[in-house]
From TrEMBL, chain A:
GO molecular function, one term: thiolester hydrolase activity
Domain Thioesterase: 64-152
SUPFAM superfamilies recorded: Thioesterase/thiol ester dehydrase-isomerase
Name of this protein: Acyl-coenzyme A thioesterase PaaI-like protein
A Pfam family it matches: 4HBT
Organism: Albidovulum denitrificans
Superkingdom of origin: Bacteria
From TrEMBL, chain B:
Protein's name in the database: Uncharacterized protein (TIGR00369 family)
Keyword Chloroplast set for record: no
Lineage of origin: Bacteria, Pseudomonadati, Pseudomonadota, Alphaproteobacteria, Rhodobacterales
PANTHER family per record: 1,4-DIHYDROXY-2-NAPHTHOYL-COA THIOESTERASE 1 (PTHR43240), BLR7284 PROTEIN (PTHR43240:SF7)
Entry's Gene Ontology molecular function annotations: 1,4-dihydroxy-2-naphthoyl-CoA thioesterase activity
CDD domains: PaaI_thioesterase
GO cellular component: cytosol
Keyword Hydrolase applies: yes
Domain of life the protein comes from: Bacteria
NCBIfam families (alphabetical): unchar_dom_1 (TIGR00369)
Family matches, as InterPro entries: HOTDOG_ACOT (IPR033120), HotDog_dom_sf (IPR029069), PAAI_dom (IPR003736), Thioestr_dom (IPR006683)
Amino acid sequence: MSPRLRPEPVQIVKERRDAALQSLIGGVPFIGFLGIRFDRRGDELTAVLPYDDKLIGNPYLPALHGGVTAAFLEVTAIIGLSWSLVWEDMEAGRVDPRALDATHLPRLPKTIDFTVDYLRTGLPRDAYARARVNRSGRRYASIHVEAWQDNRARLFAQATGHFLMPDRTAPPADE
Amino acid sequence: MNDKKRTAAQQFIEAIPYSRALGMVLEQLGDGVAAISMPYDARLVGDPKSGVIHGGAVSALMDTCGGAAVMSHPRAPSATATIDLRIDYMRPARPGDRITARAECYHVTRSVAFVRATAHDADQDRPVATATGTFTFDAAKGDRG
């Protein structure tokens, strides 16, 4: 048996993982436009959409715009899938997240199709979403996303989408 | 669409905060058909390397346009909400181009409206995305077709 390596200090591990996550989301203007943040617990991500007046689609109810809900779910799916790829590479030591900055971003998967079920009215409050990678192949991936507001068990929307995987053979630096 | 009707319809879009934030403009409305366009905006970019608009912004355009098509149906619903919407992305929209969606409400029942939509950039021959959706349909009072 090879000698067991001493575990890295927790702060170093967290900094590396948070830097990797930031490199994924920080460079996408649309995520900033909607104000979406991601909470991380280990490899699990929860997307958070803080309420903002500009997100309203029906001012009389009022309710979130269906396009906001769709976009929130699609962003959650794309980042969830990319994160699962980055996580694998990072934990295997294949990428150093400190080398990922605005000019060396990981490639993002492309949406092939995306279907949203609107289960309940989106209330004028914060919304949360989590993505599940149901299949992640060499070329295609299938992702399911659930979104809720006040109660985790009462979804206000869910979605399924198919994605074209980014080319992972070339280093992310050259395009 | 005459000027008065166009102004009223544009005011309807302007009253939707998110549609206004995306700069949507109503191009056509009536008889279950709607066309709405949206300018290119760097804030909506989903892929910083290519400058292509995020699919989520196109979803909003498709959803708004689908809802407008339902509301303009001759059976004049009092309200509508999206039940489900599927979008197929054919190709990335060209950075800098305006995106225009055209939606048609091709069938309604007492409670459901069926819609299909297509989005184009400046190239009219190759769609950027297509969508199919179902919307709730509250027929106006006295009309139980």
